[in-house]
Fold these 2 entries.
Entry 1:
Amino acid sequence: MRWGVIVFPGSCDDHDVYDCLKRVLKQKVEFLWHKDRLPANIDCVVLPGGFSYGDYLRCGAMGRFSPIMQDVIEFASRGGLVLGICNGFQILCESGLLPGALVRNGSLQFVCKPVYLRVEETDTPFTSSAKKGQLLRLPVKHGEGCYFADPATLERLKENRQILLRYVDSKGRPTPAANPNGSLDNIAGVCNEARNVFGLMPHPEDASEKILGSEDGLKIFSSLIESSPRQEKKAWAG
Amino acid sequence: MGGLGAQKIISEPAITPEIVAAHGLSDDEYRKIVQLLGREPNYTELGVFSVMWSEHCSYKSSRPHLKRLPTKGKAVIQGPGENAGVVDIGGGLAAVFKMESHNHPSFIEPYQGAATGVGGILRDVFTMGARPVASLNSLRFGAIDHPRTRYLLSGVVAGIGGYGNCIGVPTVGGEIYFDESYNANILVNAFTLGIAETRRIFKGRAEGAGNPVIYVGAKTGRDGIHGATMASESFSDESEKKRPTVQVGDPFTEKLLLEACLALMKTDLIVGIQDMGAAGLTSSSVEMADRGGAGIELELSRVPLRETGMTPYEILLSESQERMLLVAKSGREDEVKKIFERWDLDAVVIGRVTDDRMYRALYNGVEVVRIPVAALTSEAPVYQRPAERPASMDELQRLDMDSIPAPADLTTALKLLLDSPNIASKEWVYRQYDHLVRSNTVVGPSADAAVIRIKGLKQGLALTVDGNGRYCYLDPYVGGILAVVEAARNLACVGARPLGLSDCLNFGSPERAEVMWQFSQVIDGMRDACVTLEIPVVSGNVSFYNETDGVPIFPTPTIAMVGLLPRAERYVTPWFKAEGDLVVLLGRTREELGGSEYLKIVHGLVKGTPPWIDLRLERAVQQTCLKAAGKGLLRSAHDVSDGGLAVALAECCVGGSDKPIGARIELRDMIRGDALLFGESQSRIVVTVKPTDVGRLQQIADKEAAPMQVIGEVGGSRLSLQPFAQISVEEARSIWAQGLERRIKGT
């Protein structure tokens, strides 16, 4: 599977996700400069965490205007896989690829800590190797990760089962105390209706090795790898 | 065009004694300037002298003392004198690190002061060719209930996070203390470590006559003019008015600058590079010329400006952030510019290297500054300032143990200590810092030391920062020793051997004999500890004039130490792991209470002498811990420090992220209970081992001549300290977890 990690000016977790894909998961991966075009042979585009353009305006509000984003929108509309992590999730919401918005944390402070997440749906290429209801322990680190959507949008998200991850406590309950940022309905990650674009606030790439304290983040990447058509072909040929 | 420049010069104020004084220069210093130049300086030149001869840039009061610190060691690649220190970590890689103070700006404007402190130290590290991978900070605030403390604390923490998080460098650890001594003069010391290839370390040198001097990064504004001079003055009520001398940080621009500089450093285009920190363009260009044994000529009208109408004086002295100065190879200017253009940054040739050892600045072709480089550097004044032990020390150090009533209920005393903001959990602080970005953090904040892995290398690095101002106040020599040995002990607790340290020496005015005495004593103490433990000082900074209305802060050296773990995955954490493990105390408890947190919190006293220290015993205990950790014997290890043994044990029970776990401890030493539980005797580490491993640990301890004693067993839901105190671990955790946060929130 071929991965492209977009480097916006101000991306910080681009190295983290690149390293996780390349060194830990032995994937073919390249950095994509925000001023360039999207190469034709990419299977999955990752929008990494960080502070694109410093996020001095609304988070992700500038990032969506980067030249490469036109190609990403086009790529997504053709069914291409797009994963947005943290700032990447914010850019996907700003560019209209995902519904809703991410606003300032309820605490008004940046928060960096491990949280529990419950996998709500598994019929997506991002969660297929997890079990429904499975708990993942991943870190969050953001100042504006409070997910918000109007009632009609939230209704649609539920109807189409687009909510893929919720913040929960260690027993799997979506309590207010388990919600690190005040997100609506404890939402931590959503996909689009076509289920090929996924954004989440937690960082799977920072929980992908034993030495980092958790390997739960691998579930997201391995789901993508296992659902890749190239992978299937290879397995079939073998 | 020459006329414009000439006009500017004419419009400059004439030099009067008042103007000289306003620049922080003494009459003697002014006479020396006239003598060195062979004429009166003009206003711009006076500004250049004032910043270069400021305490902050020239180290004129501290230099004779700093020479006593050991700076060499087998891992040292670069000691003090460059932008940061460099040590070899194996595998062709080096750790590049430094700590620096940003105290005065942070008191005046906490968010921006702290943020630009982080920005400045990051530039010091990446200017050497290293990618920053971890930051620490050491903070001191006034009493937690002082009306300004919460505002300052919130602002400083948000500023550190705002800058560090945005630029993508994790803040992996730090320390915070609260004491009345810092009510009107907080301390913000920021540390960054970067990784570089040993054969690609860059230095701040201007060499090769004719080579272009290139300005890169953000544009220059009027912010921060005379920041270096401000940092060399004491505070008064007037300080609030100095807000405009605090710079404003732009971490996004610095992120671009960081990436562009690291890209540039992969090429062979540059000769030297230096960040523009305190005293901005002036100090960076002067220092580069000085280190390269060269001269430099600048055309100030080419400097990219953010504001109109800036004078040569303002351009030279601005401390606008996110700027670097570099010397490129002649004829390669366009290649340099191309790299910066990719990141949408300015790169402008503003001068050239000369061979006349003269510092010259032109404005539209008219010379506005002409000073021999040496006059600004090696000829700068050096003072052997008077130093004297104040007579009041005798009374301060006197502590009659019999006059201190032992509390009837030691459990209550333990609760008071766990609730002290100096001991309670600092989670409210560090959860505002991204401590994970770059995915290297193995052990984050809240342990004795942080541990990071280095991708592609089996070794890991441990980082810690430590310093106890109260100990130094009570005995600066012993305090200096303790600051170093505790940092080394913290490293030993995670299983790392020290490679080197960087220090921030925060003191009052050097013009006070008692302060100079404290300074000199602290240096002597640090030296003795560094020599015995074989730890070189590779970088650091001195911050004097930390006083307000004539009252100095506690003398506060903060020591940031970096250590090497042979294998990153062989780290040890402080927290108890499993029922049935044996709890072992390495080291010995003495009957002493001087300078302890207990004495302060429970008895309201800051008195006595700090804990006794025997450097051979310290070394034996640390070696035992390191060897046992290396053999994989230790389930946990935690340094005994503030709050003594009882607090250390409580932290072992409740400090981890898992469910708290209890312990049954029996203490048999024949000393009074409060000293046994809360005394801060040095050279002690609490470790746990599996019962089957206790013999192997004993063998190591015997060989190192370190005392060791099995004091109990992990298990249950209570921490029981027989026969003195006991507490349920749930209650202990709740008190400890809330101690700081509830006070900040005012609940």
Entry 2:
Amino acid sequence: MKIKLKSTLENYLFVLPAFVIFSIFYIYPFSQVFFLGLYEWDGILPTKTFVGLNNFKDIFFSDPIWWKSMFQAGWITIIALIFQNVLAFLLAWACDREIKLKNWYRLIFFLPPILSEVVVGLVWQWILEGNYGLLNSWMNNLGLAHLTRNWLNDPKTALNCVAIVHCWKGFGWGFLIFLAGLQTIPRELYEAARVDGASSWTAFRKITLPLMVPVAILVAILTILGTMQAFVLIIAMTGGGPAYHTQVPVLRILASMRDSGRFGYACAQGIVFGVILVAVSFIQYRFSKRSQARGA
Amino acid sequence: MMETTPNISKGLKGYSGLVLFFIFSFMFFGCAPKKEESLTGKTVTIWHWMTDRDQTFQELARRYEEKTGVRVDFELYAPSDAYSQKVRAAAQGENLPDIFGLLAEKRDFASFVKAGYVSNLTVNMKENNAEWEKKFFPKALAVNEFIDGNSYGVPAGIYGVPVDVMTITMLYNKTLFKELGLDPKKPPVTWNDFLAVGEKIKEAKKQGLVSGWGEIWMIDCLASNFAFNIMGKDKFLATLRGEVPYTDPDWIRVLTLFKEMQDSGLLYNGLVSMVNKTAEQIFANEKAVFAFNGSWGVNVYNGMNPKLDYGVMLLPRVSDKFPVSVWGGAGSSFMVYNKSKNKDEAIKFLKWLTEKEQQVFLAAQTKNLPANKEAIGNISPIMAQFSLGLEYATHPNTWGFSESSQVTEAFDKGVQSIIIGEKTPHQVAGEAQKIKERELARKR
């Protein structure tokens, strides 16, 4: 009995440092943010006014711009999930094969993610500028003048332009993870398939795709979390405009805190946003697991 | 190969001693006091965000130490957003420096005062027959003043020291004016004249007005100028108090002006998501006929294109009922930390900084308008044109009321929507009023 107790205490002792660090850096700040969400506070005065769940009520029932920003972040995420990840996977698959200069391609594809988001945003802003931008200039030279527009100021194109640049900036991460995943697939499986007369397409469908499902789940979750929280690129490209057309939740949280001095409300927005992200990731994970189990 | 391994290992051992020596030296000296003490042992620390003025501030600090033996440390934290957050965080931790600048609306300024972070300088301003107070332009001082019965609940007094003053008004490019067949000595005076220039700009396929309208406060600035001209200050303030709705015909007229500017070709294509830095660059590169910008732009334009030939004009008059106004007053101000141990030294330094000699030097070096009236005679011709705007200056910090930030955002974002043709002035006014009523109900 004594030995068992000692062993249990020892186990707890080993876990203690991690628990303490986790509590200080995660649980405590999170609980503080939650409690601040129950107050009206301007971030300056030492006094705060308790408003209960009013901030949360306002977010759900009186803040259409918040939900518009959520929808827009969701739209960018959908575009990223489809285009960014498909592109990343196809390029990783190409680089995993025996092609010339494959290391060179790997380097090139991984360049955008390591560039500063502000720099990327400003460069693309210059490319997409309506009056002297590079894109419009090329289109004019190609005889497509009727299609030119002020890409970042037109409500019809601003969000999609931001989404495309976000994909361009981010596909390198997916590429890297997919490439690592592809390299773990034993080459013998492909050789055996070839011996059995399987075509490249069949090998891809029957070997590569099923074995890459766990990697794809990981990349998808990272894409959702990364894209929903994107804001630096958007600030650099459009500042959230024109009007509210490229606003995303993090920009709204910043606006509440910095421009309106509503720290309590900003904390409540942060909590709601965090809960939504966890829920989306969880649902996505469950769906992927289920489809994976069905596949097996 | 076999022999080299032990040698390398031996070599590394030697180096590791050296590395350890450097690490410990770094730790030891890293813990030493950062800067030398001044002759008097007193140091006044100042936080600011003004990158363009930092060098001049450092020079002034050097001169002050030479004169008094008191060291002054100007610490620059930029960009301004990061600076604002730093000041708020430092206030919470009661770690503010002896002197700091505030980049905030009057509402936040009031919170800083109420929280006890900012010293009331009224006694210092008023002593010796108000000697210090009389040195400043009254409008510059008014920005740092809370009057009796103000809506923020702050005891009446002067809580800040203006270092320079600014006005925000309309600028026009004289070279482009000539190219359009216009007389550069006669900028448009009335609204119709202004729209007529827009038509000429459109015909000549040039670009019109640039400004940082992606940063919505500049839209707010122009809109309130128009509102003062159309409805007068009293009705404007009544709107802030909730006594006049935004759906009032005068407000609809204010919003319609933005649509008219867009329709006549006066606005630069892509204006609504433009930051002011970009706007300044475009105007400096002579790619826009007009700019709506502050007097700080003189220094910026001079740096980007010293040959730029431009003039300053008042905003075109929309109505004859009320005078045209411009935003103006204190450009940047310094506050004294109320809990500072060096409060007296800090006030002494600010008095010295705002004396004529230092103000002339500051204005000459940074091309900003001085806050000290006596120093205004020594400014450049273009700055003199800006200084004329001071006569018509008004500033939100002097109104005694602040509009709710949610209403301001809805109004200004609404103006962006009008410019991109997405909403009508009536729609925007209705939306702003709806939020105004929600905010009024919340306050009640």
